[in-house]
Amino acid sequence: QVLFVESGGGQVEPGGSLRLSCGASIGIFDYVSMGWYRQAPGKQRDFVASITNNDNTNYVGSVKGRFTISRDNAKKMVFLQMSSLKAEDTAVYYCNAVRTGTQHMFDSWGQGTQVTVSS
Question: Is residue 1 very low, low, confident or very high in pLDDT (cuts 50, 70, 90)?
């Protein structure tokens, strides 16, 4: 069962912007926090940002001030606006519900969307 479908990735130059989207097929969407995670080549998947059902947000330090997470409960979608992109932001980006803190809720991940920052 596909729970999350990510899109919006691509290749951009350093300093560029991208907006990622995630459609969620979970009945509890309105009640849970949602998050974005990323996995760079050869590294583990790491937390990037989360948003509660009351629109409180949390970011990993390296993206604060550059990334903005938002959600649309009516459409069961989560977004990640990324600006001032850096080479180190290159990764496959995934969304998931958040169990607590930065921990993902579901073990089933979507296919992700590739973000490549390169000149």
Answer: confident
Report the alpha-carbon distance of residue 79 to residue 95 in Å, rounded: 9
Adjacent-strand bridge partners of 78: 22, 71
**Phi then psi dihedrals of residue 114, to 5 deg:** -80, 130
Nearest partner of 36 among 52, 51, 14, 25, judged by Cα? 51
pLDDT in tens, 96-114: 999 999 999 999 999 999 9
CA 96 to centroid of chain Cα atoms? 8
Per-residue confidence band for 70, with pLDDT thresholds at 50, 70 and 90: very high
Report the alpha-carbon distance of residue 63 to residue 75 in Å, rounded.
26
List Cβ neighbours of 106 (8 Å cut-off, separation of 6 or more): 3, 4, 26, 96, 97
